[in-house]
Amino acid sequence: MEPLASRRPLCSRPAPTTGAAWLRSLPRTTDASTSNPRTRMRPSFPLPASMRRMRVPKATRADQADDDKPSRTKRLSHEATSIECDVDKRMLVQAARKGEDMDTSQNTGKKRTTLIVALVACLVLAVGAGVFAWFSAQDTKTNTFVSGTGITDPDVKPDPNRPTDPHPDPDNNPNTDGKIVETEWNENSPLAPGSITPKNPNMGIGGDSMPAYVFAMVENTLPADAYFVLGKGWKPVEGYVTEYKTTITVAPDQTVIDKHPSITDPDAKLYKSGLFVYVGETSDWAMLAPTVDPAGNKANYTGELFDKVYTSSTFDKGQVTGDKNTIKVSAYFAAASGDGEYTGENKNQLKEESKKEILASVKAWAANVKA
User: Fold this and answer.
1) Which NCBIfam families does UniProt cross-reference here (predicted)?
2) Mean pLDDT calculated for residue range 66-77
3) Which of 68, 97, 126 is the last residue of a domain?
C-alpha cells in the first residue's frame, strides 16, 4: 500500500488547522429536495456510508465569531452544519479507507455465506436424489412340483350291474391295473356274420383323483361290417367319428341299415370308430369325480363306452387277417391345473377357454394314436 505522505491531495485548497474552520471552507450546497434555504456543508469527496449519517455538535459561538462575513447565509449554514469534527484530512482519508475495507470484508463475508448455503443445498438435493433413485424391492417365490397327472387309477372294478359304480365286493373282485376296465372281454374271441362279441370298455379314476373330463378313441381295423352301439353318457366329437352305414334291401325300393335284430332302440347310434367324450346325464362335457363306495374302496366310472361288437349279416370272416383283426380303445383324461379354471364353486365345469385348449390337445392326441 502507498504511504499517505506520497498520495495526491484530495483538494487544492490547503487544509485548515481546525475541523470547524476547515468544514466552513468546503463548498456549500442547497437542499433542493425540501426547498430549505438553509445550506449544508459537504466535503468535495465521498464519505463512507458509516459516516454519512453521523451527527456532531453544532458550531460554537466562537467559531461563528471567526467568520468576518455577518451574512444570513453564513449564519444559517452554521446552524445547518451536520458534520463538525476535530479530525483532519488524514483522519478522514483513513476513515474512508477503513470503511471501504469494512465494506469489502462484509461483501466477502456475504459471498462466502451465500456460497456455503448453496453448497449445503446442493448436498441436500444430491442426498435426496440418491435415496430416491435407489428405492427398490425384491421378492422370490419357488414352487415345487411333483411327478404325476393328478388322475389316479380306480381301486376296484365297476359293478357289473351298475357300470358307473365301483364293485360292491372288493374281496371277490381283483383290483384294476389301469383306467380302462373291461369285465366282459375274452381274448381271441371269434367273429362271424351276424355275431355278437362281448366287449365293454369302461373308464374310471381313483378316489384321490382330481375331477376330469374323459375322452375315448376307438380304432377299428376289422372289416367294414363290424360296429358297436355307443353307450349312454357318451357323445361323438363332431368330425372325428366314422358311422356304421351298411344297408340291406328289404323291398324292391326300400333299404335299411343292416343292424343286428337285438338292437331294438330306434335312437341307437352305430359307429365303427372315432373320438368320443363323456357327457354323463347331460348334453355337454361332464367331469368325472371320485366317489366312496359302501365298502370303503374309492372309484368312479363313466359307464361303458359300448358293451358289444356286432357284425352284419354280410360280414366276410375271411377278411379277418393279421392286420385287420383288432379294436383298440384309448382314453384321455383332462383335469384342471388350478381352481381358477373352474366356472363355479362346485368344480363341475371348466371355463370355455380351458375347454377349447383341452379339445385342441385331445385332437392332437387322437391323431397321434391313430397314426
Assistant:
1) cognate_SipW (TIGR04088)
2) 48
3) 126
